[in-house]
Specification:
Helix 4 crosses helix 11 and helix 8 packs antiparallel against helix 9. By secondary structure, the chain is an all-alpha fold. The model has no long low-confidence stretch (mean pLDDT 90). Among the domains are: 94 residues, no CATH class; 102 residues, no CATH class. It binds zinc ion. The site of zinc ion has 8 residues, from loops. Zinc ion binds next to loops.
Length: 296
């Protein structure tokens, strides 16, 4: 059920992502109604249903009958599947909808959906124009920091409130015990490691640009790397970066073997950062466990 809800939300987010990507590439305002790219006529709200409208209108504009880009349909379905799977996977461990765990689950879901949305926009713009727009990635970093800070504060305050309600709980608060402080620190871990990893990965990419004199990586990758560090924290963001380099290298070797590109020619790195991050978002624990099992 939750998976289906995620799929439907993903369909809507898909058209939203496509609009954000297109408008940030053509430097248009993000605000304002959707319109046909050919005749500029505003599209009626009842023709804006993802997938269904596309099929009903037979992929053509109602006004000028020009063919609509298949990208709309592809993005909607792809994002639908992505968010559907995300919702399904996140909800697997959910047992009750009446306790703090549920609130935690909701935060988690919103956080991950936001992350996937930004990654999808960047994926599109970088593939199409080798460009990661500041108008997307900078607000995304600000929203990410605000979100993680807010969640951390709410969780720590809730823990304090919860303990303070009972006699036994009060004994776990300072000055009686360090239980509360230890758990508060544990709760703040994603926030602390997120900030640290953002600085580390951003700095690492920046130094790569300086060493290679800007070949292969750009300022957009630095900001995207920092965003990924912030959102995934430690150790997940490191695994994501490692997977990005790995998939990027394998892909480049294939391109060179099949003669599509020659050595030294640049391909955008952003899409690989996105792929690495998605792999970690969905299977981070499995990948880490597998890696740790190799060392025994
Ligand atoms: Zn039109």
């Amino acid at each position: 059920m939750i998976g289906l809800a995620g799929f439907l939300l993903g369909l809507v987010l898909g058209s939203f992502i496509k609009v954000l990507a297109d408008r940030s590439l053509s430097k248009q305002s993000f605000w304002g109604r959707s319109y046909c790219t050919y005749c500029k006529k505003t599209i009626k709200w009842y023709d804006l249903f993802p997938v269904i409208s596309y099929i009903l209108l037979k992929a053509r504009c109602k006004n000028c009958h020009k063919k609509l880009s298949i990208e709309y349909l592809l993005m909607e379905v792809a994002t639908g599947l992505l968010i559907g799977f995300l919702f399904y996977q996140t909800s697997v461990n959910l047992q009750s909808i009446y306790n703090f765990k549920f609130l935690s689950f909701l935060f988690d879901l919103i956080f991950k959906t936001f992350f996937v949305t930004i990654l999808s926009v960047v994926f599109l713009t970088d593939i199409k124009k080798m460009f990661i727009p500041d108008r997307i990635i900078l607000p995304a970093i600000r929203i990410g920091i605000t979100f993680i800070t807010a969640i951390t504060i709410i969780k720590v305050l809730y823990l304090y409130y919860y303990l303070n309600q009972t006699v036994v709980g009060k004994l776990l608060l300072p000055p009686h015990s360090d239980f509360f402080l230890r758990h508060a620190f544990y709760t703040a871990e994603p926030f602390l490691t997120g900030i640290l990893m953002a600085a580390l990965i951003g700095g690492f990419f920046m130094s790569l640009i300086i060493i290679t004199k800007g070949k292969g990586m750009g300022g957009g990758d630095v900001k995207l790397g920092a965003f990924i560090g912030l959102m995934l924290g430690f150790p997940n963001s490191l695994i994501a970066i490692f997977l990005s380099f790995l998939t990027g290298a394998v892909f480049s070797i294939f391109l060179i073997i099949f003669g599509k590109k020659h050595f030294g020619q640049s391909i955008p790195f952003g899409p690989f950062l996105v792929l690495g991050s998605l792999m970690v978002l969905f299977w981070g624990d499995k990948i880490l466990n597998w890696y740790l099992s190799l060392r025994i």
